[in-house]
Amino acid sequence: MDPDPDRTRAFGEQLLGILTGGVLTMLIGIGHRTGLFAAAARGPATSMELAERAELHERYVREWLGAMVTGGIMEYDPAGGRYSLPAEHAALLTGATSRNIGPAASSLRTLGSVLPQVERCFTDGGGVPIAEYAAVSAGGLGETWRHIYDEHLVDGFLGPVPGLLERLRAGVRVLDLGCGTGHAVNVLARRFPRSTFDGLDIATDAIADAEAERTAFDLPNAAFAVADAADLAPDKPYDVITAFDAIHDQAAPEVVLRRIRDALAPDGVFVMIDTKFATRLEDNVGNPYAPLSYGVSLLFCVPTSIATGGSGLGAMWGQERATEMLADAGFTDVEVFDTPRPQNCMYVCRTEES
Length: 354
Ligand SMILES: C[S@@+](CC[C@H](N)C(=O)[O-])C[C@H]1O[C@@H](n2cnc3c(N)ncnc32)[C@H](O)[C@@H]1O
Prior knowledge:
This protein is an alpha/beta fold and 354 residues long.
């Protein structure tokens, strides 16, 4: 059958949008890192004035502005030769907030730097070690999640869990598995001084950053260690165990979930923040967050899991699979909560003894 010309034309337009979005993402990253958006948010300016404000070379700034204006990100007044960033756009492109998309745009650039390694996995198999992604966690992705934890972790994510904030206030033993650079632990340790917090991650660099922040925040009730979650076997049980965006990255998630269950006190609770998608591909069609999350999973979660001998569960394991694996690990009471981010949900897991 001959292709339907209207459908081909429509798909051509879709592809143009995809290519344009790819380039604009790179340019948004430049605007974020060079301070151009912050400079533009201070008010309308010519390309020369904007270049001076941001201490950059005008010729490059002018070409960037051309893409920003024609891409619908900034506006241009030809009469005065001035460019402006609407306040509504500045709200999503500037500031130390989780709404600022600049760090995420930057992290996609960093993920692009491991493309050759990931492409090699397509032909040769194997994975990409987490150490090759150091810049990703230090850069955009890490920055985005830091703001999310600052703004939403205590009240937005954990607040709705029945009884949890009261227990944290009273003083309990908490473990965060796959803590990365440790900001979530440090935020909680600062907010709940009567509780003690252990953060554990397999990545040495991340734990060094976590420890540096703990020292800077002067938190005697937090501690970090390099360890493999699959070896978890604490001397004393924990009252609360958390895993934020970390279980699907594990080489052996089934083993880790079982270890978590065994490491909990009888009335303990496991809180797992993860992606909010369906397990079946067909049920994710139409979800606007799905292509991005499948892509990040392909470029980060799957190859890092496979690099450590895992099966590459990936970020798109989905709620049905997650719930099944939690039940297999022995959690008899699993409640799924919505979170302040539509692309994440939170599993609150207990056993019948709790
Ligand atoms: C996407 S990051 C999330 C980090 C942190 N929880 C956050 O929200 O910022 C996943 C983390 O899981 C860690 N991880 C992966 N496999 C691990 C293992 N076997 N044991 C401990 N940590 C592991 C990675 O090193 C990484 O820091």
